[in-house]
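Deliverable D5.2: sample structural annotation.
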Amino acid sequence: MNRILLMDLNSCLHTLKYGFGKGRVSSKEKHNFIIHAFLFKINALMRKSKADVVVYALDSERSLRKEIYADYKEKRKNNKTKQQIELDELAYPQFKEITDYVIPTLGYMNVFGADGYEADDVIGRICKSYANTQIIIYSTDHDMYQLLTPNVCILDPRTDGFYSIESFKKQFKLEPKMWKRVKAIGGCASDEVKGVPIPQKDSTKKQRHVAEKGAINYLTGKMQQTNSSYLAIKSEEGKRVINRNKKLVILPFKGTPEFKIRPDRLRKKGLIAVCKRYGFKAILSDIDTWKQSMRLR
């Protein structure tokens, strides 16, 4: 096992879901479009990454982080439109099919999750446990920056390019291990974790918080000591928020279990079975090309 591809499965499937939401398929195809798109996605990733094994990381429905911070990811559940809810109702049965049938039938042996923990924690734990193995993380999540090492890189779905430890240092002038400090100070907008609060002279104005850019300026010595953000970071309240946020942003979350990776058993007959189940005739007609690119036996 020379190279591991780590994928946040939930995040990947939601991205494919929004492809349908943009009206790219007909109503006739809607009940298996995400499954179809997933096959093309994993085929492309196998070609790009040349991975020996793929690990699919899952989110738990329960979050231990919410016990520390009640607002953690709260708006994601409460701000959905009627159209988004309808799209979820269409997508989630396909998500289950992919997890329960498609992935194991293809021969992928490593689908990991743990109660209370997120896919990011699974990815973080494997990066720590397999530190001497070449690892590729497929993710758009900037939280993954803290996991970059000479052996760990990120394959960015938006650019289809590899983001390395050298890329990070060039962009931020920081070591990747400092990224968790950036997120602790500046918060994480996507997870609804607020950064250090900046004292307001006018109580009628909206509360401001130190953001990612401010945190980077502070850590790289570019922030003046008289700056309100600097004073907020140095304050007792600032220290309290930073210590709280550290527990939320450090990967893996404390207590994340170990995961033992097994060799994949990818088989041509597995892909054939999947395509016959869902009527993917075009893939079946080009099965030998797929066999080669997906490294099937």
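Annotation notes: The radius of gyration is 21 Å. The chain is about 45% helix and 10% strand.
The annotation will be released with the project's public dataset once the embargo ends.
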